[in-house]
Amino acid sequence: MKNTRRKFLKVAGLAVLGWSMRPASRLMAAHGAQSAEGLFMASKHGAPKHGEGLHAGRWIMLIDTNKLTPAIEQKCINACHTNHNVPDIETKQNIKWIWAEPLHNVFPEQMHENIPGGTERTTLVLCNHCTNPPCVRVCPTKATFQREDGIVMMDFHRCIGCRYCMAACPYGSRSFNFMDPRPHIKDAIPEFPTRTKGVVEKCEFCSERLAEGKLPYCVEVSEGAMMFGDLEDPESEVRKVLASRYSIRRKPELGTEPGVYYLI
Amino acid sequence: MYDKGAVIAGLAVFVVFFSFPFWYNTGSAAYKQPQPELPKNSKQCVESKEWMRAEHMQLLNTWRDDVVREGMHEYTSTANGQVFNKSLVKTCMKCHDSKEKFCDKCHTTMDVNPYCWDCHVAPKEAK
Ligand code: SF4
Ligand code: SF4
């Protein structure tokens, strides 16, 4: 009988070894043409490709840094914030989905003082809807998750306010409700919910608008300075623009693969 | 019998407390089923009235997950096959346009506090 026990341990050891190689093989698979799956990738959720509305393989946004003016920027911010019941709080605890930021903060690695317009020139920043979003990987409740079309969503119902996602996001795209936002919203619009104290929020690429077949609010009022489309469709407008103009993304060295491209 | 006095006193106290709801409420008005105000612009809900009365909370829970997590927005009524947008504010509250006269009627009577309205914005009450 001694023999059997030896054999069992051997087999068990081999099995453990085998299982430990499985994630490694998946990780390697992630370096292929499709980097959508792998050990260090967030898992995806949701199958939004049915029903009416706009659908895409991978939604992306282009921001033309040359066409944006402070006035247009403000228009985009207002359109987003009023329609999504984003409160306006006078302190550091303000909530932002989209905001204007000086270029030296957006692209700190690639600034020099002689760029056209200077480094204080502003552009718009928002959640990048990363292909490999660190915020999604750390969320313990899956309150923030990635849809198959690349949109990083928030399920406000599920957020427990631990703020792991805020620590994980390398772009500061997320805001936390330190207080009840309702008193800070002038006229809450009924079509979109507000949030409560203790919940994290951020841009959702206007998923509720896409479901109705409309483009995001900011894109609509941007006077052509912003574009929205499907990265996976070679015939799409955004792909054509990407092929013809030079574009950069924020902190590419981190491997988050942002879905927001800045045209230079 | 040991400690007869203490046992009987204890029993008496128990009976008094146990029957508290009965004698406390004698003479007060009988329970009346709450009468939520029904919408004027529509005769038919997404499902039958009886089913909605019992199951609306589960329905809303399912709608919530379908819309937010799965991106599924259409609900086909099992009562009449009609298709509805799964939305509390954009569907339910378009007919039931007063939270006070509809939702609150039963919720207050039953002393339940659903947290829907902590985030979702109720339609403006016509005063
Ligand atoms: S920008 Fe930040 S919040 Fe948005 S998907 Fe990327 S890591 Fe998440
Ligand atoms: S704060 Fe909310 S969304 Fe962020 S990680 Fe925690 S539970 Fe998830």
Could you characterize the architecture of this molecule?
The complex is a heterodimer of chains A (264) and B (127). Chain A is of the alpha+beta class and 264 residues long. Chain A has helices at residues 2-29, 70-83, 103-106, 134-138, 164-168, 207-210, 217-221, 237-244; strands spanning 59-64, 98-102, 122-126, 144-146, 152-154, 175-176, 200-201, 226-230, 247-248, 260-263. Chain A has one domain: Alpha-Beta Plaits, CATH 3.30.70. Chain A has a 4-stranded mixed β-sheet with strand order 8-1-10-9. The model of chain B has no long low-confidence stretch (mean pLDDT 90). Chain B is elongated. In chain B, strand 1 (74-76) and strand 2 form a beta hairpin. The A-B interface holds A 45-53, 85, 145, 147, 153, 155-157, 188-196, 207, 211 and B 64, 68-74, 89-90, 93, 118-123. Bound molecules: iron/sulfur cluster (2 copies). One iron/sulfur cluster binds next to helix 4 of chain A.
CATH topology of chain A: Alpha-Beta Plaits
Count of all domains of chain A: 1
Largest sheet of chain B: 2 strands, antiparallel
Instruction: Look at the structure and give the mean pLDDT of chain A.
Output: 89
What is the H/E order of chain B? HHHEEHHH
Task: Summarize the amount of helix of chain A as a percent range.
Answer: 25-40%
The CATH class of chain A is identified as: Alpha Beta
How are the strands of the largest sheet of chain B arranged? 1-2
Helix content of chain B: 40-55%
**Unreliable segments of 5+ consecutive residues of chain A:** 30-35
Distance between the termini of chain B: 69 Å
User: Roughly how many Å is the radius of gyration of chain A?
Assistant: 22 Å
Largest interface: A-B, 27 and 17 residues
By helix and strand content of chain A, what is the structural category?
Answer: alpha+beta
Shape of chain B: elongated
Q: How big a fraction of the residues of chain A is strand?
A: 5-15%
For the biggest sheet of chain A, the summary is: 4 strands, mixed
Query: Rounded to an integer, what's the Rg of chain B over CA atoms?
Result: 23 Å
